[in-house]
Amino acid sequence: MLNTVMVEDNSDASEKLQFLLEKYCAGKARLLARAASGQEGIAAIEVHRPELVFLDIELGDMTAFEMLERIENVDFQVIFTTAHDHYAIKAIRYSAVDYLQKPIGREELLAAIGRAEHSPRRILKEQVSQLAQHTRPKASLPEKIALTTAEGLVFKKINDIVRCESDRMYTVVVMADGEKMMVSKPMGQLEEILEGGDFFRVHNSHLINMNHIRRFVRADGGYVVMDDGATVSVARNRKEDFLELFSKF
Fold first, then answer.
1. Which residue range is the domain that position 113 belongs to?
2. Do 110 and 66 share a structural domain?
3. Strand 98-101 to 29-35 pairing
4. How far is the C-alpha of 174 from the C-alpha of 230, rounded, in Å?
5. Which of 64, 94, 125, 243 is most deeply packed, by most CB within 10 A?
């Protein structure tokens, strides 16, 4: 049973989430307090020391990320809730923190609580730091990304990623030192996270780091040789965009 605090400034959303928790999650989460602002949320967390916090991203007096920065000891799981903030969701995915999009459904809520039950009941300081960094105005790509594997959460430097290869609902991530990791995300999600950097999806099954290309070969329709020795075909419909980007490196 997870002792839980909710921080939500919309009364209708707050009441609905409480209803769902009490009706469907009574044996999994115990709601100790509801807060309607960031300042109230900080006070509730200090008093109740919860294991899980449902945290709305846009609060009236501050953002969820600003609130987390003001808490000295973030030793609880966080499930963010949001209606539409795509930019914030991208930051959340960078840090592998859980989130729910409103309106929240029963199955999504149960799944999120299930993940919280089986995860260490804390947010790593590095995760909070990345969240804060990437939600500041005009933020650049953070130095590291959090990747979820069967062994747990690992942080890797983005620049050290050579390529990502799709494996159905998973992605094989190949690092510059030769390490290969099976990541529990489809490649489309990684592409969304890494877009705007030096990554380019040359093929449906491959996302590559342009900084790790050894050479481009025009024969056989066109392919790249990567730093790990892999050869990756460039799809015909993506070749023009690829060559334009490649010319800048």
1. 2-134
2. yes
3. unpaired
4. 10
5. 64
